[in-house]
Design goal:
The structure is a single chain. It is globular and about 55 Å long. The strands form four sheets. Strands 3-4-2-1-15-14 form a six-stranded mixed sheet, with helices on one face. A five-stranded mixed sheet has the order 5-8-9-10-13. Strands 6-7 form a two-stranded antiparallel ribbon. 26% of the residues lie in helices and 24% in strands. It has a single domain, classed as Endonuclease/exonuclease/phosphatase (Deoxyribonuclease I, Chain A, 4-Layer Sandwich).
Length: 343
């Protein structure tokens, strides 16, 4: 079966409050891309992916007017996708939800959060609290407890493969960006960058704590999403020793595995796999980065057949298929990552 992660830039802007796609010539939230252009491009990409399960990062919003599940299932129906049922975890207020589309004929899926539910004023009792709560940790060994919350709580899914009965835990994550938004001078850039990295690393530790709990219990698992980080991605990493990707991967017998992350860790200078492409206006050039991952637990590694980044320039099939190549560039600033695995 095929499992994917895909960050879709401002997917929410393609829907109205009834969950209907807006397919017209008005501008999407993507630069110089209309809603019709982005919608059509996404239809082409999703059709080509042909996934059984896809973790969607920056999924359409849920609020008093909007509904993520309704929007995603309407999108799947519009393009006759196999992955036509949607599941949402804890909603957030960023207009960028984490949700999954799946083929109900292939898998049974449900939102299945673990950990202590948030109770105002209650102490943290062992292990990782539920992802919509607060994680207490002393990040800098100053005897002062830091309280960390996810702006986008990870989506925890219990998945069962219908044909084999195989159960797998899926976690979809979108860690906080390290961009120093609001900074007006060099000192503020440094202060905000360090503060944001500290928060991101705390989120990574929280996520790894949950992963450890599942691995100790013997749960097969796949962790995927946009981690907004990677080894050597910024100059502040040396202050903390490790990137959040390294923390989430772990070490030893319970280390997760993603071949693209492994390549990046082994070779910090030279060609690297990339999953995202951003235009840097002040430099008048594009920046590419490895931000999106599909990590598997040790017991699933032997069952994994192929990881693939659907990069319009680096993947030969995508490059040689002009319609798909252009669709990938139009649909989002991130490219899908798929895992073909025997479950």
């Amino acid at each position: 079966m095929r499992i994917a992660t895909y960050n879709i830039e401002w997917f929410d802007s393609l829907f109205d409050d009834t969950g209907q796609l807006v397919v017209d010539g008005s501008w999407s939230a993507r630069y110089d891309v209309t809603k019709a252009m982005q919608t059509e491009a996404l239809g082409i990409v999703f059709t080509a992916l042909n996934v059984d399960v896809v973790m969607i990062i920056e999924a359409p919003d849920t609020n008093r007017q909007r509904d993520t599940v309704r929007a995603l299932e309407g999108f799947a129906k519009a393009f006759d996708l196999r992955a036509r049922k949607a599941v949402l975890g804890f909603s957030n207020d960023t207009q960028q939800e984490i949700a999954a589309l799946y083929d109900p004929d292939v898998v049974l899926v449900q939102h299945d959060p673990k950990g202590q539910a948030p109770v105002p004023g209650a102490p943290q009792v062992g292990g990782a609290p539920r992802f919509d709560g607060t994680f207490r940790i002393d990040l800098d060994i100053d005897a002062t407890e830091d309280k960390v919350a996810f702006s986008k709580p990870p989506l925890e899914v219990a998945m069962t493969v219908r044909s084999t009965g195989q159960t797998v835990r899926l976690i979809g994550a979108h860690l906080k960006s390290k961009a120093p938004h609001g900074a007006t001078n060099r000192d503020e850039v440094m202060r905000l960058s360090i503060a944001n990295r500290r928060k991101q690393l705390a989120q990574a530790i929280w996520l790894r704590t949950r992963i450890e709990e599942h691995l100790v219990a013997g749960d097969p698992m796949i962790v995927m999403g946009d981690l907004n980080d990677g080894p050597g991605l910024d100059e502040y990493e040396h202050l903390f020793g490790r990137s959040s990707v390294e923390i989430i991967l772990g070490t030893g017998d319970r280390a997760l595995f993603d071949p693209h992350a492994s390549k990046a860790l082994l070779r910090r200078i030279g060609p690297q796999p990339t999953t995202a492409r951003f235009y840097i206006s002040q430099d008048e050039r594009y920046l590419q980065a490895l931000l999106d991952y599909v990590m598997v637990s040790p017991d699933l590694r032997a069952k994994a057949r192929r990881w693939r980044i659907w990069h319009p320039f680096d993947d030969p099939t995508c490059w040689k298929t002009p319609e798909l190549r252009e669709a990938l560039l139009t649909a989002s600033d991130h490219f899908p990552v798929t895992l073909d695995i025997d479950l």
